[in-house]
Records
---
Amino acid sequence: MVELRKRKAPEPAPAPPAKKASSVKSAGSKAKDGKKDAPTNGASSSRTHAVGDSITLEGFGGEVETHAGEKTTLKKLVDDSKAGVVLFTYPKASTPGCTTQACLFRDDYASFTASGYSIYGLSTDAPEANTAFKTKQSLPYTLLCDPSATLIAAVGMKKAPKGTTRGVFAVDKEGKILASEAGGPAATVDVAKKLVGVPATTTEDVGNMAEGSKVENEIEEGKTDAQEVEASAAANGEAEQKEDEQKADVAANVADVAADVADSAEKLDHGVQA
């Protein structure tokens, strides 16, 4: 009788080696570690403020310069005001939109100051550019020059990587924010008007402002042409006067010749009769 033997069970396969932990952390682990990627979408680095918030005026926005070259700060401007300060920011002096905005603030300047608020324009322009802007548009208020955009950033109107958002920022004597809003030329003025209880700007106001600026530019551009026309007219006038004088001389000469001929004819006639 044949004896059957049991086969030995196969030995278990060796366990696979443990995988090494990945050196690349997931986005979630990065967040846990407190690390964040640098922003790449050009988001503004300005601070944001809400109406009703209070700020510490001392050191707020650093030091800026007036169009006349005087150093100043927001705290000093507020201290010198009766009720507070209204800053309107603009991208670049003497450009169409900024001119409209500045002139709208100019036209209601009396209403703002009667309420005790001091008005200032704020941009990154140099004192020379803002002085020319102020002079040409007859602006009654001071323009602030902030080339480093420290105050512009502090009031929340700085673009990244550079540039200025058009807007308005108002603060009272205690540092309470009364307005902080970006907008177009008329919209920024209306924020300030609402603050002092003045009716909003109408489309007619803006239209008249634009038409006035257009006429002013045409006059400015036409100065050279007008001077050239005037000089040309003067030259033509002198030429015509000289021509008239020459004609008068010729006429006088013709008259003299005619008189001589008549005199000679008369003498000949007397000689024949004799």
---
Amino acid sequence: MSPTAYDTWLVGLREDNESLPSIEEQQAFLDFLNEKTTAEEAAQAYTSLVTNMEYPDPESLWLLIWQAAEDWPETHERLVELLKAISHLPPIKNAGKVGEGSVLEYWSGLPEFEFGLREYWDGKATRVIYNADPSIHSCFINLTSFNARLFRDGVFQLETWAILTLSEGLEKPYESQSHLLDTFVPAAAQYILQTGPAVYKCEKEAIFAGPLLEKAREKGSVERWGFWKERFASMHDRKDLKESTQAIGKQAADRMETIEKESH
């Protein structure tokens, strides 16, 4: 059988990445991407080695998922299915891990995933600012879209992360740096297009510090919401931006208008 695009991709990753999981775990992940296994089957196979470690460390498993999310946005739905299947794996029963006859609900909270993804995303955001490579910018948008899907599908409650991403895209002084707006605006729009109602109803406590913080203290996320809507709408007439950025800016602003009307 001829290798698939995913096969070729993984071979390329192996050549310059020493942090990947074992070959057996990689194959389990690859079989899932190639639709040879179900999410439940893949969850068992992908985590089996970590499950049987005395001190489980899933970091390399998560890294491969994040890299797939960056490079293959069409896999996002299946990656979420895999994560949900992993979170429903049975408890680890191993007397040597915690104590005699112990049961460890290890996988239920997807240990270290959210914290690790936050660090990973922060690193990618920094690379976007200092590196003009188009592939880095497109991968960042893909990764942010994946984060928004995790929020939308209830894998994690990422309200604060959504606020941070919108602030990064719409409140920072990137006016003279259209290449950054061409990345951060589409990235921020993912949270409006995928999880807009949840962002609109976000509690005040979830708001990060930023240029609008003082106003937001009084009126919650709605004050910022109006500013963000104006910013998204303004992208439509920016001739220095990509047509795709102009379009998604208008799309996000229109979606925000609809969410407001549906919420009253």
---
Amino acid sequence: MAQALAEAGAEAIAILDLKQDLGEEAASRLSYDAKIPVKFYRADVRDASVIAQTIENVVSELGSVDILINSAGIV
């Protein structure tokens, strides 16, 4: 999804996930390939306060959120 957004002209992308190493790698690779800011934020979607704080950080660091894609799964 993030790559498709970059290819469609996104100016910046935030990736949220629990897996720090995979998230940082994906953000770094996409930022390099797409030549846009891509930041990783470690966040647990089960914790509303963490998500609220993360969204505040995203807005502060990357600007307003125009598109939000939720593809989290809880097992």
